[in-house]
Structure formats: structure tokens, C-alpha cells
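User: Teach me something about this protein's shape.
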Amino acid sequence: MASKLTAALAAAKAENRAALIGYLPAGFPTVAGGIEAAGALIEGGCDVVEIGLPHSDPVLDGPTIQTADDIALRGGVRIKDVLRTVAEVAAAHPEAAVLVMTYWNPVDRYGVARFAADLAAAGGAGCILPDLPVEESEEWRKAAGEHGLDTVFVVAPSSKDARLAEVTAAGSGFVYAAAVMGVTGTRSAVGNLAEDLVARTRATTELPVCVGLGVSNAAQAAEVARFADGVIVGSAFVQRILDADGDQAAALAAVRTLAGELAEGVRRR
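Assistant: First, the predicted structure itself:
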């Protein structure tokens, strides 16, 4: 039986379009507000949502997401709140796949088997683990597999072909291709390295290849959708919530609108 994530990506492909994957950290601007915002992403057109586990030292994340993580952490967000976010979003929106994006340290401290079991029980579809080396991932992948969770690894333009093959052989669900060298954030142009990275990654795997880091508008989404199986957007959604300056209704309207625009973009292949 196909996983929830595999099914969501396959449904987009069946419509001859790229999937739209949105990211927001849990607990931002509050736990309840974050749950509503993630739901608005799906209502606007996201096929998959990534719920970030806020971290005090987010190596992959740029200033926008760092700001959101800081707000969440100062609000007291805990792993139980991340799992609650997954559970409520997954229950309210069974049509979408809900992932957790987290650095490895919190999972390790929580307990690998316990985290996999609790994420699955919450209705989560899998995990994106940007800083977990494939060589050290066996314990997690075993626990994830026992609970039907996908494990998404990140590849970068600097990854050599042999390394791409190692990473894609270990992962499931999709491969997260970082469009640029560096951290997350909106950019005026998507890196030209992305298309080459997707082609090189596809040569090693049958998994869908989804591109993130830098996409912030419909035109960029359309550009990436031309060569990728999915388009990942995070900082642009976070910025809309920051711009709403505490007005939750305005924040929800803004992220729902942006998701709708991006959903149109991924259809213009």
C-alpha cells in the first residue's frame, strides 16, 4: 500500500502538475495559530505540509524562519505541541500528507522509537531530517519503517553523483533537492543549479524529486515545476504571518492567498 506521502505526490502527477509543499514551524505565532495556518496552506492548495520542529540553532534556516522559531520557542513550544499540530492538521485535512521537518538532536533526545511511534499515532506521514547523515540513519529508518513513516533526505548542488545515489537509496517518499547552496529564504531568482541537481538526482532514483530553498511566488513555482516533481515553499509563508503583525485573520488570509497563487504556478508547467 502506498504511503500517504507517496499517494499525495502521485495524485499531483496524475493531474500533470508538480506537487505544492508548504512549510510552517509549529507554535508560530502560537500553537493554536500555527495549526490554523497549516490548515490554511492546505485549503489554499498545498498537497503536503511540513511542520517544523523549532530549534535554537537551525543550520539550514535563514533569518525569516529563525525569527519564527524564536517566537515559537519563546512561547514555550515543546515536542508534544509539534505532535499536536500534526494530529490536528492531519485529522482536519485527510487529503494532505503532513510531515515533520526536524533536526536530529530533538528526536535523539526524545527517543527514536518513541518519536516514530508518536508521530505515526498523530497521523504524520514521515520526517525530513536535513542534518542526519545517511550513514547514521539506520536506527531511525528502522523505527520509521515499522510505523509506515517516510524518511526524506536532503541533497544539495554540491552533492557528487555517487553521494546522490547513496542518499536516494536510503530515503523514501521524495528527495528534497536544495535549489541553492546556503540557507532558506525568499530570493529574487531560483538558483540555476536546481535543474541540474534534479536531473542528476533522477538518474539515481525513481523517487519524486522536490525542490526547495528560494521559491516565493507563482512565477518561480512555475519555473521549478517545469523540471521538478514538487515545489517546496517555507519562508514566503512565514513572512506573510510576520507581516500580519499579530492579526491572525489577516495572517490566515495571506497564507491561503499565497498558497492559491503558488498552486496556480505549479500547474503552469
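Now, about its shape. The first strand starts at residue 19 and ends at 25. DSSP finds twelve helices and nine strands in the chain. If you'd like, I can walk through any region in more detail.
User: That's plenty for now, thanks!
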